[in-house]
Structure formats: structure tokens, C-alpha cells
Amino acid sequence: MTSSPDLTSLYQMLAKGQRPILPSGEQRAILGCGYVGQAVAKAWRQEGHELWGTTTRRERLAALAELVDTPMIFDSTDSRTSLSFTEGLDGILVSFAPSKTSHVDIHHYRETFLGGLKLLTDALQKRPRETPLQLVHLSSCGVYGNRHGALTDESVRLDSLHPVNEVLAMAEDMIQSLRSESVNVCIFRLGGIYGPGRDIPAMLLSAAGGVVQRNGQNVPCWIHLDDAVRAVSFAFEHNLNDTYNLVNDTQCTGQELTDRLCEQAGLPLAKWLTIDTTDRVLNARVSNAKLKQLGFTLTHPSMVG
Ligand SMILES: NC(=O)c1ccc[n+]([C@@H]2O[C@H](COP(=O)([O-])OP(=O)(O)OC[C@H]3O[C@@H](n4cnc5c(N)ncnc54)[C@H](OP(=O)(O)O)[C@@H]3O)[C@@H](O)[C@H]2O)c1
């Protein structure tokens, strides 16, 4: 294992100097270059910024070097990890999340989110107080829990019953505590993300004529990857410093959404259950009005059509 750190330095050295950074470009980091993080990296590269990007996996460093100038290993559950490289940057996207497993381990959730944000807090404490910084944190509309389909804006009380939602709310509090005269903190609460490689409409359509083992009466919410990326750029352009729901315009139940997709495709409807099959339920008509009032527009307002 002695050669691994050298390989990391080599990738970082090779990545450096690959391309010119625009004079107007900023120095930005993406903590967690997963589905959203990678797409943001592509957009930010086009805008001419110098980028740092993280992964937990050494074997991903080479691929990441294609997307960012300085690929880094960051694993918030590893006590040797540091985020000291973020100290002098102009902007940071916080987009790490526990890797998906069928079983949610709440201890791992806590360690990943809260441990990672503690490391970020420690690193940012060392920066000069007056240096401007834009932070964007990707949270989830899951924090609203079961509101029985009620219209839901950013001001409502968050669910504290489910431990995952409790962790996500604590993560929001931690990132908010970094706000200062010079540090803007924008929190986006995202709906379920879909787009290339995460084809939720196709997944829903695959249920046509069958039975979906979920409660079709619950109201979920969604956002297309393209709009998630555009919202992150919008936050940077407009120095956003508040919390916003980031969802499309669809405010219907899972059953209604699948019915519309099936009708449009000329397929038989799917049946859904009418009872919850999981203890973490999102059932809320989540409003995107606050972000739209600032002038943000959606390129994918609905999954249907
Ligand atoms: N996906 C959704 O539908 C959805 C909905 C609402 C909110 N969100 C939020 O949006 C953000 C981005 O989601 P996504 O779908 O892009 O996630 P993703 O594809 O699962 O990517 C997660 C990233 O976090 C990294 N990561 C995993 N464990 C980590 C740890 N312990 N320490 C540091 N980094 C770690 C992963 O590293 P590797 O590169 O090694 O895999 C990966 O780069 C997340 O904060 C998520 O909670 C997602």
C-alpha cells in the first residue's frame, strides 16, 4: 500500500496544468463527485473555473482527473481525512452522501454527513474571516416527512420522527452555522433526482399493468439532473444565502404520476398499494415558488410530456 499516496500525487500533478483557467474563473471544490457532483463539474469547467473534486475511492481518481483539476480522496468516515485544501477557495458544493445500500445504517448516515461537515467546519475556521466564500449544500425534501400531501414551503417545521431526517436537519443546521458576513450558505432541498442513467420515468413505466409495492397515495417530488446543475450555478451567480426547495412543478401522488405516464405511452395502468411499506415517508406537495420568485426557471418542469 506504500505506492498509493504517490499515485494520488501523480494524478494530481498530471491533472494540473492540463488546461488554462479563465482569468474570470474561481477556485471551487465539489465535495462528493457522484451523480450531481460530476454533472456540476462539467458545467463549472465550461465556465472556466479551477476545480477540486473528491471521491472516497482511489480507483476513481484517474476518471475524476478528466473532470476536475485536482482530484482528491475525501472519506468523512476515515479519521485520516482532511479538508484543509478548501481553506482558500471561492466556492464549495457539498454533495456527498452515504453510498447507497439496501439497508440504511443510521450510524453510518450520521458519521458521513455530520462527520464530513465537522471536517469542513474545522477547515474553514482557518480561513481569513473577510475572504468571501459561497457554499451550496444539497439537502433533501425528505426532511419534510409525512405532511399528508399538504402544500409545503421552506418555512414548515421539519420531520423529527425519522432518524435519517433528524440527521439531514442537523446537517442543515451545521452548514448554516458557517454563515457569516463573508460566507454565503445556500441550502437546496432536492426532490428525487432523475436524468440520464437514472431514468425514473422508465422505471415507473416498467410497472405498467402490474402492482407497485409502495403507497401510491403519497405525494413525492422530483428534480431533473439538468435543473439541479442549473440551480447550483444560479446560486453562485446570485450569491444565494438562504434555503430553497429544488423540485419540479409536479405535485401529484405516485399513482397519479404513473397513470399519466402510462396513458401517454398507451400502456395499461399500474396498481399501487394504499398503505406505507417503509417507515420513511415523504408525502408533501413541495412548493418551488421561493426559488422561482428569484427568476430561476425549470427546463424540465414535469416528468410527463
Ligand atoms: N439522489 C437523489 O435522488 C437525492 C435526492 C435528494 C437529495 N440528494 C442529495 O444530493 C446530493 C448528491 O446526490 P447524488 O445522487 O449525486 O449522490 P451520489 O451519486 O450517491 O454521490 C455521492 C458522493 O458522495 C461520496 N461519498 C460517499 N460516502 C462518503 C463519505 N463517507 N465521505 C465523503 N464522500 C462520500 C461518493 O463517493 P464515491 O465517488 O467514492 O462514490 C460520491 O462521490 C447528496 O447530498 C444527496 O443527499 C439526492
Which characteristics define this entry?
305 residues, alpha/beta, Rossmann fold, 7-stranded parallel sheet, two-stranded parallel sheet, 13 strands, 31% helix, globular, binds NADP nicotinamide-adenine-dinucleotide phosphate
SSE layout:
Layout: H1 4-15, E1 27-31, H2 35-46, E2 50-55, H3 61-64, E3 70-73, E4 91-94, H4 106-124, E5 133-140, E6 146-152, H5 163-176, E7 183-190, E8 192-194, H6 200-205, E9 211-215, E10 222-224, H7 225-237, E11 243-246, H8 254-265, E12 271-273, E13 283-286, H9 289-292
Helix pairs in contact: 2-7, 4-5
The structure holds NADP nicotinamide-adenine-dinucleotide phosphate.
Please, could you describe this protein's structure?
There is one protein chain. This protein is of the alpha/beta class and 305 residues long. It has a domain at 4-16 and 26-194 and 224-248: 3-Layer(aba) Sandwich (Rossmann fold). 31% of the residues lie in helices and 21% in strands. The chain is built from 9 helices and 13 strands. The protein has helices at residues 4-15, 35-46, 61-64, 106-124, 163-176, 200-205, 225-237, 254-265, 289-292; strands at 27-31, 50-55, 70-73, 91-94, 133-140, 146-152, 183-190, 192-194, 211-215, 222-224, 243-246, 271-273, 283-286. A 7-stranded parallel sheet has the order 3-2-1-4-5-7-11, sandwiched between helices. It has a two-stranded parallel ribbon with strand order 6-13. Strands 8-10 form a two-stranded parallel sheet. Strand 2 (50-55), helix 3 (61-64) and strand 3 form a beta-alpha-beta unit. The mean pLDDT is 93. NADP nicotinamide-adenine-dinucleotide phosphate (NAP) binds at residues 32-37, 55-57, 60, 74-77, 95-100, 112, 116, 138, 140, 190, 192-193.
